[in-house]
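@channel sequence for tomorrow's demo:
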Amino acid sequence: MLKKMRVLTGKQNEGLAQNIMWGFVEALLVGVPFVFVYLIIKEMFTTVPDLSYVWTCCGIMTALFVARVVVARHVMINNHSLGYDAGLDIRRNLASKLKKVPMGYLLKVDPGRINATMLQDVTFTEQIYSHLFSQLIVTFSLVTLVVIGLTIEDWRLSIAMCIGLPLAIVVFVVLKKVGAVLSRRLLDKVAEMTGSLMEYILSIKLLKAYNLAGKRFSKLDDQLKDIQKMSLKHEFVAGVAPLSFITLVELGFATMLLALVYLYVGGELQPHVAVLFLIVSSRFFRPLVAMAMFLAEYNFMQQSANRIEEVLTAPELPEGHWVETLEPSIEFDNVSFTYAEKPVLRSVSFRCEPGTLTALVGPSGSGKTTITSLIARFWDTTSGQVRIGDTPVEKLTAECLADHISLVFQDVYLFQDTIFNNLTLGMTDPDWEQVERVCKATCRWDFISQLPDGLDTVVGEAGASLSGGEKQRLSIARAVLKDAPIVLLDEATASLDPENEYEIQQALSTLIKGKTVIMIAHRLSTIVHADQIVVLENGTIIERGNHRDLIENSSGLYRSLWEAERHAHGWKLVSEGETTSVPAN
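C-alpha coordinates (generated this afternoon):
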Protein backbone atom coordinates (compact mmCIF):
# COMPACT_ATOMS: atom_id res chain seq x y z
CA MET A 1 0.00 0.00 0.00
CA LEU A 2 2.91 2.35 0.68
CA LYS A 3 4.09 1.83 -2.90
CA LYS A 4 0.62 2.72 -4.20
CA MET A 5 0.52 5.84 -2.02
CA ARG A 6 3.82 6.94 -3.56
CA VAL A 7 2.20 6.58 -6.99
CA LEU A 8 -0.93 8.51 -5.96
CA THR A 9 0.85 11.36 -4.20
CA GLY A 10 3.91 11.51 -6.44
CA LYS A 11 6.11 11.68 -3.33
CA GLN A 12 8.32 9.30 -1.39
CA ASN A 13 6.07 9.26 1.71
CA GLU A 14 8.07 12.12 3.20
CA GLY A 15 7.69 12.36 6.96
CA LEU A 16 6.35 8.81 7.31
CA ALA A 17 9.58 7.44 8.79
CA GLN A 18 9.57 10.19 11.41
CA ASN A 19 5.93 9.47 12.23
CA ILE A 20 6.72 5.76 12.62
CA MET A 21 9.49 6.64 15.07
CA TRP A 22 7.21 8.88 17.12
CA GLY A 23 4.51 6.19 17.03
CA PHE A 24 7.00 3.73 18.51
CA VAL A 25 7.89 6.31 21.21
CA GLU A 26 4.18 6.66 22.04
CA ALA A 27 3.88 2.87 22.29
CA LEU A 28 6.84 2.82 24.70
CA LEU A 29 5.20 5.49 26.84
CA VAL A 30 2.03 3.40 26.93
CA GLY A 31 3.83 0.13 27.67
CA VAL A 32 6.58 1.16 30.12
CA PRO A 33 4.13 2.16 32.89
CA PHE A 34 3.13 -1.52 33.08
CA VAL A 35 6.66 -2.21 34.28
CA PHE A 36 6.08 0.14 37.21
CA VAL A 37 2.65 -1.40 37.79
CA TYR A 38 4.43 -4.73 38.11
CA LEU A 39 7.00 -3.26 40.51
CA ILE A 40 4.27 -1.70 42.67
CA ILE A 41 2.27 -4.94 42.77
CA LYS A 42 5.38 -6.93 43.63
CA GLU A 43 6.28 -4.48 46.41
CA MET A 44 2.73 -4.53 47.83
CA PHE A 45 2.94 -8.30 48.22
CA THR A 46 6.05 -8.09 50.38
CA THR A 47 5.79 -8.41 54.18
CA VAL A 48 6.54 -4.72 54.82
CA PRO A 49 5.94 -2.62 51.67
CA ASP A 50 8.28 0.31 51.08
CA LEU A 51 5.76 3.14 50.58
CA SER A 52 8.41 5.63 49.46
CA TYR A 53 9.37 3.17 46.71
CA VAL A 54 5.70 2.81 45.75
CA TRP A 55 5.20 6.60 45.62
CA THR A 56 8.34 6.99 43.54
CA CYS A 57 6.99 4.51 41.02
CA CYS A 58 3.65 6.36 40.99
CA GLY A 59 5.50 9.64 40.36
CA ILE A 60 7.42 8.15 37.45
CA MET A 61 4.16 6.76 36.01
CA THR A 62 2.59 10.21 36.28
CA ALA A 63 5.56 11.75 34.43
CA LEU A 64 5.30 9.06 31.75
CA PHE A 65 1.58 9.78 31.41
CA VAL A 66 2.25 13.51 30.88
CA ALA A 67 4.98 12.68 28.36
CA ARG A 68 2.61 10.31 26.58
CA VAL A 69 -0.05 13.04 26.28
CA VAL A 70 2.52 15.41 24.74
CA VAL A 71 3.86 12.77 22.34
CA ALA A 72 0.36 11.54 21.41
CA ARG A 73 -0.65 15.09 20.52
CA HIS A 74 2.49 15.46 18.40
CA VAL A 75 1.82 12.11 16.68
CA MET A 76 -1.81 13.03 16.00
CA ILE A 77 -0.88 16.40 14.49
CA ASN A 78 1.89 14.88 12.36
CA ASN A 79 -0.28 12.02 11.12
CA HIS A 80 -3.16 14.29 10.19
CA SER A 81 -0.76 16.74 8.53
CA LEU A 82 0.70 13.87 6.50
CA GLY A 83 -2.79 12.66 5.62
CA TYR A 84 -4.08 16.07 4.57
CA ASP A 85 -0.89 16.76 2.60
CA ALA A 86 -1.40 13.42 0.84
CA GLY A 87 -5.02 14.36 0.07
CA LEU A 88 -3.88 17.71 -1.32
CA ASP A 89 -1.21 16.06 -3.49
CA ILE A 90 -3.64 13.44 -4.80
CA ARG A 91 -6.27 16.04 -5.71
CA ARG A 92 -3.61 18.15 -7.44
CA ASN A 93 -2.41 15.11 -9.36
CA LEU A 94 -5.98 14.25 -10.37
CA ALA A 95 -6.64 17.83 -11.52
CA SER A 96 -3.36 17.84 -13.46
CA LYS A 97 -4.19 14.46 -14.98
CA LEU A 98 -7.61 15.60 -16.19
CA LYS A 99 -5.88 18.37 -18.15
CA LYS A 100 -3.75 15.82 -20.00
CA VAL A 101 -6.28 13.14 -20.93
CA PRO A 102 -8.21 13.33 -24.22
CA MET A 103 -11.69 14.82 -24.11
CA GLY A 104 -12.96 11.41 -25.18
CA TYR A 105 -11.95 10.01 -21.79
CA LEU A 106 -13.95 12.68 -19.96
CA LEU A 107 -16.96 12.04 -22.18
CA LYS A 108 -16.85 8.30 -21.44
CA VAL A 109 -16.52 8.64 -17.66
CA ASP A 110 -19.59 9.54 -15.59
CA PRO A 111 -19.06 13.04 -14.07
CA GLY A 112 -20.49 11.69 -10.81
CA ARG A 113 -17.73 9.08 -10.71
CA ILE A 114 -15.02 11.71 -11.19
CA ASN A 115 -16.66 13.87 -8.53
CA ALA A 116 -16.78 10.90 -6.13
CA THR A 117 -13.13 10.13 -6.85
CA MET A 118 -11.99 13.73 -6.25
CA LEU A 119 -13.91 14.04 -2.99
CA GLN A 120 -14.98 10.78 -1.36
CA ASP A 121 -12.20 8.48 -2.58
CA VAL A 122 -9.44 10.95 -1.71
CA THR A 123 -10.96 11.42 1.77
CA PHE A 124 -10.92 7.66 2.37
CA THR A 125 -7.38 7.35 1.01
CA GLU A 126 -5.85 10.13 3.10
CA GLN A 127 -7.06 8.26 6.21
CA ILE A 128 -4.40 5.64 5.47
CA TYR A 129 -1.89 8.19 6.72
CA SER A 130 -3.99 10.12 9.22
CA HIS A 131 -5.54 7.12 11.02
CA LEU A 132 -4.54 3.66 9.83
CA PHE A 133 -0.73 3.78 9.95
CA SER A 134 -0.62 5.51 13.33
CA GLN A 135 -3.03 2.97 14.80
CA LEU A 136 -1.07 0.05 13.35
CA ILE A 137 2.27 1.40 14.56
CA VAL A 138 1.14 2.07 18.13
CA THR A 139 -0.84 -1.19 18.41
CA PHE A 140 1.83 -3.43 16.91
CA SER A 141 4.60 -1.85 18.97
CA LEU A 142 2.60 -1.93 22.20
CA VAL A 143 1.42 -5.52 21.75
CA THR A 144 4.95 -6.65 20.92
CA LEU A 145 6.44 -4.93 23.99
CA VAL A 146 3.74 -6.27 26.33
CA VAL A 147 4.01 -9.83 24.98
CA ILE A 148 7.81 -9.78 25.35
CA GLY A 149 7.56 -8.45 28.91
CA LEU A 150 4.88 -10.94 29.97
CA THR A 151 6.70 -13.82 28.32
CA ILE A 152 9.80 -13.03 30.35
CA GLU A 153 7.67 -13.08 33.52
CA ASP A 154 5.65 -16.22 32.72
CA TRP A 155 5.71 -17.76 29.23
CA ARG A 156 2.83 -20.16 29.98
CA LEU A 157 0.27 -17.42 30.70
CA SER A 158 1.63 -15.33 27.85
CA ILE A 159 1.03 -18.14 25.35
CA ALA A 160 -2.45 -18.76 26.80
CA MET A 161 -3.31 -15.06 26.45
CA CYS A 162 -2.22 -14.95 22.77
CA ILE A 163 -3.53 -18.39 21.79
CA GLY A 164 -6.43 -17.03 19.71
CA LEU A 165 -4.41 -14.35 17.87
CA PRO A 166 -2.99 -16.44 14.95
CA LEU A 167 -6.41 -17.93 14.13
CA ALA A 168 -8.02 -14.49 14.46
CA ILE A 169 -5.60 -13.06 11.89
CA VAL A 170 -6.28 -15.87 9.40
CA VAL A 171 -10.07 -15.56 9.71
CA PHE A 172 -9.88 -11.76 9.46
CA VAL A 173 -7.83 -11.87 6.23
CA VAL A 174 -10.21 -14.36 4.58
CA LEU A 175 -13.36 -12.43 5.50
CA LYS A 176 -11.75 -9.14 4.52
CA LYS A 177 -11.34 -10.38 0.95
CA VAL A 178 -15.08 -11.03 0.77
CA GLY A 179 -15.75 -7.56 2.14
CA ALA A 180 -13.40 -6.03 -0.45
CA VAL A 181 -15.69 -7.16 -3.29
CA LEU A 182 -18.72 -5.57 -1.61
CA SER A 183 -16.75 -2.40 -0.88
CA ARG A 184 -15.94 -2.03 -4.57
CA ARG A 185 -19.57 -2.53 -5.59
CA LEU A 186 -20.80 -0.10 -2.96
CA LEU A 187 -18.34 2.63 -4.00
CA ASP A 188 -19.32 2.17 -7.67
CA LYS A 189 -23.00 2.44 -6.73
CA VAL A 190 -22.35 5.61 -4.72
CA ALA A 191 -20.49 7.13 -7.68
CA GLU A 192 -23.42 6.24 -9.97
CA MET A 193 -25.87 7.81 -7.53
CA THR A 194 -23.71 10.96 -7.33
CA GLY A 195 -23.94 11.31 -11.11
CA SER A 196 -27.72 10.90 -11.03
CA LEU A 197 -27.98 13.44 -8.23
CA MET A 198 -25.90 15.98 -10.20
CA GLU A 199 -28.07 15.34 -13.28
CA TYR A 200 -31.27 15.80 -11.26
CA ILE A 201 -30.10 19.10 -9.75
CA LEU A 202 -28.77 20.53 -13.03
CA SER A 203 -31.89 19.53 -14.99
CA ILE A 204 -34.50 20.46 -12.39
CA LYS A 205 -35.71 23.41 -14.49
CA LEU A 206 -36.33 21.16 -17.51
CA LEU A 207 -37.91 18.44 -15.39
CA LYS A 208 -40.38 20.90 -13.84
CA ALA A 209 -41.25 22.29 -17.25
CA TYR A 210 -42.21 18.81 -18.47
CA ASN A 211 -43.69 17.71 -15.13
CA LEU A 212 -41.09 14.97 -14.81
CA ALA A 213 -39.49 15.99 -11.51
CA GLY A 214 -41.37 13.26 -9.65
CA LYS A 215 -40.54 10.52 -12.16
CA ARG A 216 -36.86 11.41 -12.33
CA PHE A 217 -36.68 11.60 -8.55
CA SER A 218 -38.18 8.12 -8.41
CA LYS A 219 -35.13 6.88 -10.32
CA LEU A 220 -32.84 8.67 -7.88
CA ASP A 221 -34.90 7.38 -4.96
CA ASP A 222 -34.52 3.81 -6.24
CA GLN A 223 -30.76 4.26 -6.38
CA LEU A 224 -30.72 5.62 -2.83
CA LYS A 225 -32.71 2.59 -1.65
CA ASP A 226 -30.30 0.26 -3.47
CA ILE A 227 -27.39 1.94 -1.72
CA GLN A 228 -29.17 1.57 1.60
CA LYS A 229 -29.66 -2.17 1.05
CA MET A 230 -26.12 -2.63 -0.23
CA SER A 231 -24.69 -0.65 2.71
CA LEU A 232 -26.55 -2.85 5.20
CA LYS A 233 -25.29 -5.98 3.43
CA HIS A 234 -21.77 -4.57 3.37
CA GLU A 235 -21.91 -3.65 7.06
CA PHE A 236 -23.12 -7.16 7.89
CA VAL A 237 -20.43 -8.96 5.87
CA ALA A 238 -17.66 -6.46 6.61
CA GLY A 239 -18.63 -6.42 10.29
CA VAL A 240 -18.18 -10.19 10.57
CA ALA A 241 -14.42 -9.81 10.03
CA PRO A 242 -13.66 -7.53 13.02
CA LEU A 243 -16.29 -9.31 15.14
CA SER A 244 -14.66 -12.68 14.45
CA PHE A 245 -11.24 -11.18 15.13
CA ILE A 246 -12.38 -9.68 18.44
CA THR A 247 -14.10 -12.93 19.51
CA LEU A 248 -11.08 -15.11 18.78
CA VAL A 249 -8.64 -12.65 20.32
CA GLU A 250 -10.67 -12.34 23.52
CA LEU A 251 -10.84 -16.12 23.64
CA GLY A 252 -7.26 -15.79 24.81
CA PHE A 253 -8.45 -13.94 27.92
CA ALA A 254 -10.66 -16.87 28.94
CA THR A 255 -7.85 -19.33 28.21
CA MET A 256 -5.38 -17.24 30.19
CA LEU A 257 -7.82 -16.97 33.10
CA LEU A 258 -8.27 -20.77 33.26
CA ALA A 259 -4.51 -21.29 33.09
CA LEU A 260 -3.97 -18.65 35.78
CA VAL A 261 -6.42 -20.32 38.19
CA TYR A 262 -4.95 -23.74 37.49
CA LEU A 263 -1.37 -22.59 38.09
CA TYR A 264 -2.26 -20.51 41.15
CA VAL A 265 -4.23 -23.31 42.81
CA GLY A 266 -1.35 -25.69 42.05
CA GLY A 267 1.07 -23.34 43.76
CA GLU A 268 3.03 -22.71 40.56
CA LEU A 269 2.16 -19.00 40.34
CA GLN A 270 3.05 -16.18 42.67
CA PRO A 271 0.23 -13.78 43.66
CA HIS A 272 1.83 -10.64 42.25
CA VAL A 273 2.29 -12.31 38.84
CA ALA A 274 -1.37 -13.37 38.83
CA VAL A 275 -2.50 -9.83 39.63
CA LEU A 276 -0.14 -8.43 36.94
CA PHE A 277 -1.64 -10.67 34.22
CA LEU A 278 -5.17 -9.82 35.29
CA ILE A 279 -4.50 -6.06 35.09
CA VAL A 280 -2.45 -6.13 31.87
CA SER A 281 -4.78 -8.52 30.02
CA SER A 282 -7.70 -6.17 30.65
CA ARG A 283 -5.79 -3.52 28.67
CA PHE A 284 -4.04 -5.84 26.25
CA PHE A 285 -7.04 -6.59 24.05
CA ARG A 286 -8.33 -3.01 23.79
CA PRO A 287 -5.82 -1.77 21.13
CA LEU A 288 -6.27 -5.02 19.16
CA VAL A 289 -10.03 -4.44 19.02
CA ALA A 290 -9.49 -0.84 17.87
CA MET A 291 -7.03 -2.01 15.21
CA ALA A 292 -9.54 -4.58 13.93
CA MET A 293 -12.14 -1.85 13.47
CA PHE A 294 -9.67 0.29 11.52
CA LEU A 295 -8.63 -2.67 9.36
CA ALA A 296 -12.30 -3.30 8.59
CA GLU A 297 -12.42 0.20 7.05
CA TYR A 298 -9.22 -0.56 5.14
CA ASN A 299 -11.32 -2.15 2.38
CA PHE A 300 -12.84 1.24 1.59
CA MET A 301 -9.42 2.88 1.72
CA GLN A 302 -7.89 0.29 -0.60
CA GLN A 303 -10.76 0.35 -3.11
CA SER A 304 -10.72 4.16 -3.11
CA ALA A 305 -6.98 4.11 -3.78
CA ASN A 306 -7.57 1.69 -6.67
CA ARG A 307 -10.19 3.99 -8.21
CA ILE A 308 -7.86 6.98 -7.93
CA GLU A 309 -5.08 4.95 -9.56
CA GLU A 310 -7.40 4.11 -12.47
CA VAL A 311 -7.75 7.82 -13.23
CA LEU A 312 -4.05 8.60 -12.73
CA THR A 313 -3.01 5.79 -15.09
CA ALA A 314 -5.47 6.74 -17.87
CA PRO A 315 -3.74 7.31 -21.25
CA GLU A 316 -2.58 10.88 -21.85
CA LEU A 317 -2.12 12.96 -24.95
CA PRO A 318 1.65 12.90 -25.66
CA GLU A 319 3.31 16.15 -24.56
CA GLY A 320 5.25 18.21 -27.11
CA HIS A 321 7.65 21.12 -26.71
CA TRP A 322 7.43 24.88 -26.39
CA VAL A 323 7.80 27.01 -29.53
CA GLU A 324 8.56 30.69 -28.98
CA THR A 325 7.54 31.97 -32.43
CA LEU A 326 4.64 30.24 -34.10
CA GLU A 327 3.12 31.47 -37.37
CA PRO A 328 -0.67 31.72 -36.81
CA SER A 329 -1.61 29.70 -39.89
CA ILE A 330 -3.67 26.50 -39.62
CA GLU A 331 -3.41 23.55 -41.95
CA PHE A 332 -5.31 20.26 -42.07
CA ASP A 333 -3.33 17.69 -44.04
CA ASN A 334 -5.43 14.65 -44.99
CA VAL A 335 -6.94 14.45 -41.49
CA SER A 336 -9.23 11.61 -40.47
CA PHE A 337 -10.73 11.12 -37.02
CA THR A 338 -12.70 8.24 -35.57
CA TYR A 339 -14.60 8.35 -32.29
CA ALA A 340 -16.15 5.27 -30.68
CA GLU A 341 -15.37 3.32 -33.89
CA LYS A 342 -17.43 5.78 -35.93
CA PRO A 343 -15.67 7.90 -38.62
CA VAL A 344 -16.22 11.59 -37.90
CA LEU A 345 -13.77 13.18 -40.36
CA ARG A 346 -12.52 11.62 -43.58
CA SER A 347 -9.37 12.88 -45.36
CA VAL A 348 -10.00 16.57 -44.59
CA SER A 349 -7.46 19.02 -46.05
CA PHE A 350 -7.55 22.83 -46.07
CA ARG A 351 -5.39 25.78 -45.02
CA CYS A 352 -6.16 29.00 -43.16
CA GLU A 353 -3.72 31.82 -43.86
CA PRO A 354 -2.71 34.24 -41.07
CA GLY A 355 -5.18 37.10 -40.61
CA THR A 356 -8.04 35.44 -42.52
CA LEU A 357 -11.52 34.32 -41.55
CA THR A 358 -12.52 30.74 -42.40
CA ALA A 359 -16.12 29.67 -41.87
CA LEU A 360 -17.17 26.06 -41.34
CA VAL A 361 -20.64 25.23 -42.66
CA GLY A 362 -22.65 22.05 -42.87
CA PRO A 363 -25.48 20.00 -41.34
CA SER A 364 -25.35 18.92 -37.70
CA GLY A 365 -22.92 16.04 -37.24
CA SER A 366 -20.87 16.94 -40.31
CA GLY A 367 -17.66 17.40 -38.25
CA LYS A 368 -17.45 21.19 -37.77
CA THR A 369 -16.93 21.15 -33.99
CA THR A 370 -14.54 18.22 -34.33
CA ILE A 371 -12.28 20.38 -36.51
CA THR A 372 -12.02 23.10 -33.86
CA SER A 373 -11.51 20.43 -31.18
CA LEU A 374 -8.59 18.94 -33.12
CA ILE A 375 -7.01 22.39 -33.48
CA ALA A 376 -7.28 22.93 -29.73
CA ARG A 377 -6.05 19.33 -29.35
CA PHE A 378 -8.91 18.09 -27.23
CA TRP A 379 -8.25 14.90 -29.22
CA ASP A 380 -5.45 13.68 -31.48
CA THR A 381 -6.16 12.80 -35.09
CA THR A 382 -6.60 9.19 -36.12
CA SER A 383 -4.49 9.88 -39.21
CA GLY A 384 -3.08 12.95 -40.95
CA GLN A 385 -1.78 16.11 -39.30
CA VAL A 386 -3.10 19.39 -37.97
CA ARG A 387 -0.38 22.06 -38.11
CA ILE A 388 -0.07 25.55 -36.69
CA GLY A 389 2.59 27.23 -38.76
CA ASP A 390 4.93 24.39 -39.70
CA THR A 391 4.52 22.57 -36.36
CA PRO A 392 2.06 19.68 -35.81
CA VAL A 393 -0.13 20.44 -32.79
CA GLU A 394 0.91 17.18 -31.10
CA LYS A 395 4.49 18.52 -31.05
CA LEU A 396 3.42 21.53 -28.94
CA THR A 397 2.96 21.63 -25.19
CA ALA A 398 -0.56 22.24 -23.92
CA GLU A 399 0.59 25.60 -22.52
CA CYS A 400 2.11 26.70 -25.83
CA LEU A 401 -1.03 25.72 -27.73
CA ALA A 402 -3.28 27.47 -25.20
CA ASP A 403 -1.21 30.67 -25.44
CA HIS A 404 -1.82 30.84 -29.19
CA ILE A 405 -5.55 30.07 -29.22
CA SER A 406 -8.65 31.84 -27.91
CA LEU A 407 -11.92 29.93 -27.88
CA VAL A 408 -15.45 31.31 -27.71
CA PHE A 409 -18.01 28.54 -27.25
CA GLN A 410 -21.76 28.64 -27.74
CA ASP A 411 -22.19 27.41 -24.16
CA VAL A 412 -20.31 29.84 -21.93
CA TYR A 413 -19.05 28.73 -18.53
CA LEU A 414 -18.29 31.30 -15.85
CA PHE A 415 -16.82 30.37 -12.48
CA GLN A 416 -18.48 31.33 -9.21
CA ASP A 417 -16.16 34.31 -8.83
CA THR A 418 -16.03 38.01 -9.66
CA ILE A 419 -16.54 39.22 -13.21
CA PHE A 420 -12.99 40.61 -13.11
CA ASN A 421 -11.48 37.25 -12.19
CA ASN A 422 -13.57 35.46 -14.82
CA LEU A 423 -12.38 37.89 -17.48
CA THR A 424 -8.70 37.71 -16.48
CA LEU A 425 -8.66 33.93 -16.27
CA GLY A 426 -5.06 32.76 -16.79
CA MET A 427 -3.57 36.26 -16.81
CA THR A 428 -0.59 36.64 -14.46
CA ASP A 429 -0.79 40.39 -13.87
CA PRO A 430 -4.23 41.70 -14.96
CA ASP A 431 -4.63 45.43 -15.40
CA TRP A 432 -7.91 46.92 -14.14
CA GLU A 433 -7.97 49.77 -16.65
CA GLN A 434 -7.31 47.39 -19.56
CA VAL A 435 -10.18 45.13 -18.45
CA GLU A 436 -12.53 48.10 -18.19
CA ARG A 437 -11.47 49.38 -21.61
CA VAL A 438 -12.02 46.00 -23.28
CA CYS A 439 -15.40 45.62 -21.61
CA LYS A 440 -16.53 49.00 -22.94
CA ALA A 441 -15.43 47.97 -26.43
CA THR A 442 -16.96 44.49 -26.47
CA CYS A 443 -19.79 44.49 -23.89
CA ARG A 444 -22.68 46.71 -22.98
CA TRP A 445 -20.80 48.46 -20.20
CA ASP A 446 -24.08 49.66 -18.73
CA PHE A 447 -25.03 46.15 -17.56
CA ILE A 448 -21.72 45.80 -15.69
CA SER A 449 -21.83 49.30 -14.21
CA GLN A 450 -25.37 48.69 -12.90
CA LEU A 451 -24.32 45.57 -10.99
CA PRO A 452 -23.91 46.00 -7.20
CA ASP A 453 -20.09 45.83 -7.28
CA GLY A 454 -19.34 46.37 -10.95
CA LEU A 455 -16.44 44.19 -12.07
CA ASP A 456 -16.14 42.91 -8.49
CA THR A 457 -19.65 41.41 -8.61
CA VAL A 458 -19.63 37.68 -7.94
CA VAL A 459 -21.65 35.74 -10.51
CA GLY A 460 -23.37 32.51 -9.54
CA GLU A 461 -22.11 29.08 -10.43
CA ALA A 462 -21.76 28.84 -14.23
CA GLY A 463 -22.80 32.53 -14.34
CA ALA A 464 -26.36 31.68 -13.26
CA SER A 465 -27.09 35.29 -12.24
CA LEU A 466 -26.46 36.59 -15.78
CA SER A 467 -28.46 36.28 -19.00
CA GLY A 468 -27.21 34.27 -21.98
CA GLY A 469 -26.31 37.41 -23.91
CA GLU A 470 -24.42 38.89 -20.95
CA LYS A 471 -22.42 35.71 -20.46
CA GLN A 472 -21.61 35.59 -24.18
CA ARG A 473 -20.35 39.19 -24.11
CA LEU A 474 -18.12 38.39 -21.14
CA SER A 475 -16.81 35.34 -22.99
CA ILE A 476 -15.84 37.51 -25.95
CA ALA A 477 -14.26 40.13 -23.66
CA ARG A 478 -12.25 37.33 -22.03
CA ALA A 479 -11.00 36.22 -25.44
CA VAL A 480 -10.09 39.80 -26.42
CA LEU A 481 -8.09 40.21 -23.20
CA LYS A 482 -6.18 37.01 -23.95
CA ASP A 483 -5.20 38.50 -27.33
CA ALA A 484 -4.20 35.16 -28.89
CA PRO A 485 -3.32 35.16 -32.62
CA ILE A 486 -5.77 32.33 -33.41
CA VAL A 487 -9.47 32.55 -32.56
CA LEU A 488 -11.94 29.64 -32.69
CA LEU A 489 -15.64 30.57 -32.61
CA ASP A 490 -18.10 27.74 -32.09
CA GLU A 491 -21.64 28.98 -32.78
CA ALA A 492 -20.99 32.09 -30.69
CA THR A 493 -24.29 33.78 -31.66
CA ALA A 494 -26.55 30.85 -32.55
CA SER A 495 -28.94 31.05 -29.58
CA LEU A 496 -29.21 34.82 -29.21
CA ASP A 497 -32.03 37.22 -30.09
CA PRO A 498 -31.44 39.59 -33.06
CA GLU A 499 -30.53 42.60 -30.90
CA ASN A 500 -28.00 40.67 -28.86
CA GLU A 501 -26.68 38.95 -31.96
CA TYR A 502 -26.01 42.27 -33.69
CA GLU A 503 -24.21 43.71 -30.66
CA ILE A 504 -22.13 40.57 -30.17
CA GLN A 505 -21.20 40.52 -33.85
CA GLN A 506 -19.85 44.04 -33.37
CA ALA A 507 -17.85 42.75 -30.39
CA LEU A 508 -16.59 39.84 -32.46
CA SER A 509 -15.38 42.27 -35.10
CA THR A 510 -13.11 43.77 -32.43
CA LEU A 511 -11.93 40.33 -31.35
CA ILE A 512 -11.04 38.89 -34.77
CA LYS A 513 -9.36 41.96 -36.24
CA GLY A 514 -5.93 40.89 -37.50
CA LYS A 515 -6.39 37.31 -36.18
CA THR A 516 -6.57 33.93 -37.86
CA VAL A 517 -10.18 32.96 -37.27
CA ILE A 518 -12.12 29.74 -37.75
CA MET A 519 -15.83 30.26 -37.21
CA ILE A 520 -18.63 27.69 -37.07
CA ALA A 521 -21.90 29.24 -38.19
CA HIS A 522 -25.43 28.08 -38.96
CA ARG A 523 -26.62 31.57 -39.94
CA LEU A 524 -24.93 32.03 -43.28
CA SER A 525 -25.73 35.73 -43.32
CA THR A 526 -23.00 36.22 -40.69
CA ILE A 527 -20.23 34.80 -42.89
CA VAL A 528 -20.83 36.31 -46.31
CA HIS A 529 -17.59 38.29 -45.98
CA ALA A 530 -15.47 35.30 -44.89
CA ASP A 531 -12.23 34.84 -46.82
CA GLN A 532 -12.92 31.12 -47.10
CA ILE A 533 -16.00 28.96 -46.50
CA VAL A 534 -15.51 25.23 -45.98
CA VAL A 535 -18.66 23.16 -46.51
CA LEU A 536 -18.76 19.76 -44.81
CA GLU A 537 -21.08 16.80 -45.09
CA ASN A 538 -20.63 13.44 -43.35
CA GLY A 539 -17.11 14.40 -42.28
CA THR A 540 -15.94 15.27 -45.79
CA ILE A 541 -15.27 18.63 -47.47
CA ILE A 542 -17.62 18.85 -50.44
CA GLU A 543 -17.21 22.54 -51.26
CA ARG A 544 -14.73 25.32 -50.55
CA GLY A 545 -14.55 28.97 -51.65
CA ASN A 546 -15.93 32.40 -50.82
CA HIS A 547 -19.62 33.26 -50.63
CA ARG A 548 -19.94 34.50 -54.21
CA ASP A 549 -18.24 31.45 -55.69
CA LEU A 550 -20.33 29.00 -53.70
CA ILE A 551 -23.63 30.78 -54.52
CA GLU A 552 -22.90 30.42 -58.21
CA ASN A 553 -22.85 26.62 -57.85
CA SER A 554 -26.55 25.93 -58.36
CA SER A 555 -26.30 22.28 -57.32
CA GLY A 556 -24.10 22.80 -54.30
CA LEU A 557 -25.05 22.23 -50.65
CA TYR A 558 -24.03 25.76 -49.65
CA ARG A 559 -26.48 27.32 -52.11
CA SER A 560 -29.23 25.00 -50.84
CA LEU A 561 -28.52 26.09 -47.26
CA TRP A 562 -28.47 29.73 -48.34
CA GLU A 563 -31.83 29.45 -50.10
CA ALA A 564 -33.33 27.62 -47.12
CA GLU A 565 -32.18 30.39 -44.78
CA ARG A 566 -33.66 33.11 -47.00
CA HIS A 567 -36.99 31.30 -47.13
CA ALA A 568 -36.97 30.77 -43.37
CA HIS A 569 -36.91 34.54 -42.81
CA GLY A 570 -40.43 34.76 -44.21
CA TRP A 571 -42.16 32.06 -42.23
CA LYS A 572 -45.29 32.77 -40.16
CA LEU A 573 -47.99 30.84 -38.32
CA VAL A 574 -51.29 30.47 -40.19
CA SER A 575 -54.68 29.18 -39.14
CA GLU A 576 -56.42 26.28 -40.85
CA GLY A 577 -57.68 27.18 -44.32
CA GLU A 578 -55.27 30.09 -44.77
CA THR A 579 -52.48 30.11 -47.30
CA THR A 580 -49.15 31.81 -46.95
CA SER A 581 -46.47 32.92 -49.30
CA VAL A 582 -42.79 33.24 -48.64
CA PRO A 583 -41.16 36.50 -49.69
CA ALA A 584 -38.38 36.10 -52.17
CA ASN A 585 -36.16 38.76 -50.60
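heads up for whoever presents: The beta strands are 330-339, 342-352, 357-361, 383-388, 391-392, 405-408, 486-490, 516-520, 532-537, 540-545.
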